[in-house]
Amino acid sequence: MGRKGWIILLTFITVSVIGGNFYKAHEKKVEEKNRIAQIKAEYNSVVELKKTFTGIKSIKFNEASPNWMIEGNNMTVTITYEIPPDSPPDVLPDIYTFSFLYFTKNKVIGELGINFYIRETEGVTKGKVEVTYTNGEKTSI
Fold first, then answer.
1. What pLDDT is attached to residue 105?
2. CA 131, CA 47: separation in Å to the nearest integer?
3. For the chain, what is the total number of helices (H) and then of strands (E)?
4. What phi and psi values does residue 110 have, to the nearest 5 degrees?
5. Concatenated DSSP letters for 12-67?
6. How far apart are CA 9 and CA 46, in angstroms?
7. What is the pLDDT of residue 119?
8. Which distant-in-sequence residues (6+ apart) come within 8 Å of 65 by Cβ?
9. Pairing mode, if any, of strands 95-103 and 72-81?
10. Model pTM?
């Protein structure tokens, strides 16, 4: 291989390495942006759940995945309800796991999972709710 061949080869390798680094940096930015959007959607869905159900003590996000076709998220949560003050001391809190759609553009909750009985808990939760996001981060809302 002549001198021109080596120069072309080294130029190609250099351009490939630099381009690969730019691509990795871009991918990290996109991943971070998507992660922030996911946490924001989870937070907003908790606010909507508080407006929909009464007596929520804690919410744990088991899974949340974006659904770009509906401009929303498919979410699976476990909700723990407060124990009513007039209940016997040996009563355990009600815990439900269900899935729902959250539409990020309109900030509304869509279809709820089949095994969840909404009639029993309709109302507004006024107190703080402990939230565990999909990334393990915990907060109170």
1. 83
2. 11
3. 1, 6
4. -95, -135
5. HHHHHHHHHHHHHHHHHHHHHHHHHHHHHHHHHHHHHHHHHBSSEEEEEEEEEEEE
6. 55
7. 47
8. 73, 74, 75
9. antiparallel
10. 0.75
